[in-house]
Amino acid sequence: MSSERHATLRQVVHEVVDQTPVFDIHTHLFDPAFGSLVLWGIDELLTYHYLIAEAFRCNREPAEHFWRLDKPAQAEWIWRQLFLERSPISESCRGVLTTLQLLGLDVRQRDLPALRQHFLKWTPETYTDRILEISRVRKVCMTNLPFDDEERPVWERGFQRHPAFVSALRLDPLLLDWEKTAGQLHHWGYEVRADLSGQTFGEVRRFLSDWTQKMDSQYCMVSLPPEWRFSDNTVTNRLIEEAVLPFGRDHGQAFAMMIGVRRGVNPQLRMAGDSLAPTDVPSVEALCAAFPENRFICTMLARENQHALCVASRKFRNLHIFGCWWFLNNPSLIEEITRMRIELLGIGVTPQHSDCRVLDQLAYKWHHSRPILAGVLEEKYADLSDTGWHVTRSEVERDVHALLGGAFESFIKH
Ligand code: HDL
Ligand code: ZN
Questions:
Q1: Which residues sit with Cβ closer than 5 angstroms to ligand 2, an ion?
Q2: Which of 138, 175, 328, 366 is in the most buried spot, having the most CB atoms within 10 Å?
Q3: What separation in Å is there between the alpha carbon of 348 and the centre of ligand 1?
């Protein structure tokens, strides 16, 4: 391909990827109506659990010294450990600075108190719209838990929904802590039994139906440990196979599995204490084969699982894979995994989600990911051009819309 054609192609692809609005299909963000559950601002950015884990590695102070501090003091400690006493070169630290830059703030002063002043003028509502605008995110999928005592009342009293926020029904307590959750469901009027007997599965399906309707949930989801296996006769699998999947099939709800988290390997770090392990891709294939009428969404936490997961998605059209999740959400791995997925799956994949917990993070997570996706696409379109197949701008726009959430919307559509 001629160098000027390549230059034009590169410009078109980077422009389109940079400007295409995103549907962020998995986050821990909240509609502004959830009030105190909305995390935003510099202190929340600095105390994101990714940075806590990194800061704890910088000294030998007892963990309790940190946990006893209030949020601003925790943020100052992290600022000192990760930004002042050593260069903020990790992806999580870089993200904080990218966000501040995109907000038009000058970090050269390295003055945290001065930076804090800039956040005083915002409310959760106004800041939400500002961040969505900066990030060019058109839709944000929340992670919603009926079992959360702070979140549930907001759903029960109802609220005027922000047009950009949609929900996903999170099922970890139901699927991974049935003993306790059965009691909660029974208290709420669902005739379930801890031993799964009687009308339990039908009543769990009723619970799923009630809350899917209340939330207008886009899909159901669970985070499964690396040792999860489809073939094991466990309470988790019986609830999946006899409640969640029949419900999903009958109500057009896809089932998302995020697999590979080892919770609390270092309890001292609290939410920052989780780790990962490789999991079993054949279990996902067996699930997709056994339930062809269900639709499955999946991401895995271990780099070692990514290639086999791509192949599994080639084999099963009812399996849509997504995201460079958590410890994979770093430029080197995003590039490796995105290139592998485009080569094996073409456009039928969702390369990225943000997993944001703090609203401001939308700005940096998408600002960092977009050019990486653009670089891979530019290379692939250039390869096509070398065969004589030249994509048009509108074809690039069509493909990028699909990759940035459009294909996912089609996949989950009832
Ligand atoms: O279970 C999940 O959805 C994970 O994304 C965890 O929330 C994890 O703590 C996280 O925030 N990862 O980015
Ligand atoms: Zn998450």
A1: 355
A2: 175
A3: 24
Question: What percentage of residues in the chain have a pLDDT greater than 70?
Answer: 100
Q: How many separate domains does the chain show?
A: 2
Average pLDDT for residues 179-193, to the nearest whole number? 98
Distance in angstroms (rounded) separating the CA atoms of residues 166 and 139: 7
Provide mean pLDDT across the span 177-184.
98
On whether both 208 and 303 belong to a single domain, the answer is yes
Domain boundary pick from 78, 95, 121: 121
Side chain identity, residue 177: D
For residue 300, being part of any structural domain is answered with yes
Residue 129 covered by a domain? no
Q: Are 319 and 392 found together in one domain?
A: yes
H-only helix segments in 281-406: 281-290, 306-315, 331-345, 361-386, 393-401
Q: How many CA atoms, within 13 angstroms, populate the side-chain half-sphere of residue 364?
A: 23
Q: Whole domain around residue 169: which residue ranges?
A: 3-41+138-413
Whether the predicted pLDDT of 334 surpasses 90: yes
Clarify whether residues 19 and 78 are in a common domain. Answer: no
Q: Which atom of ligand 1 is nearest to the CA of 261?
A: 1
The band of 414, judged by pLDDT with boundaries at 50, 70 and 90, is: confident
Test site for ligand 1: of 141, 144, 270, 326, most ligand atoms within 8 A of the Cβ: 326
**Please, how many CA atoms are within 13 Å of residue 260, restricted to the half-sphere of its CB?**
23
pTM: 0.98
| Final residue in a domain of this structure, among 63, 92, 121 | 121
Token pair for 296: 């499955």
**What pLDDT, in 10s, does the model give residues 397-409?**
999 999 999 999 9
